[in-house]
């Protein structure tokens, strides 16, 4: 994208990427998402961004849209959880929370930052399941590197994601959804259900697993550019 003239910022949320935080210490969604909110807060008043979120990153995009709607030119959900109010109702959980039970009962490494008698605070898919669940049609070298870098997710924090209609901005942000038709994490049926409940401006389709940045990177880039062009012509 940078080679095509775009200015790109990749933001590590708390306990993700190179952020040093321990996922077991991140207990609220506001804390987890603070790096993104700080980034948007620091933008010049006349500057807007194209905000792209993948998987659970859709929750971060939605919260940012609630709080900083006027600074977001377009929200792009890539195989992402797209719930207007966050996890709230049983239907939200059914549509937006990955159900990997079909792969077995013991596929996660769990962390218990609040004690072994409390609900888990972090989760990581075990290495032997990662390729078949997350990267099944991605190049082997990409999935191998990803497995080396993958960190636990702060599931306690993600479960506290709540947004209200009182927040200003979410309905002024144009949204597009990029579906991934071979997805084992956010399954195609879940993606369709979220799209139907909160229809975006456009829906695009990729013949991809849950990781199109590995399995279909150039097509993913092309769809993001196409989505940007569609709002710039509005």
From TrEMBL:
Pfam families: Abhydrolase_6
Residues annotated as domain AB hydrolase-1: 27-217
Domain of life: Eukaryota
Organism whose genome encodes this protein: Xanthoceras sorbifolium
InterPro entries for the chain: AB_hydrolase_1, AB_hydrolase_fold, MES/HNL
Name under which the protein is recorded: AB hydrolase-1 domain-containing protein
Gene3D superfamilies: alpha/beta hydrolase
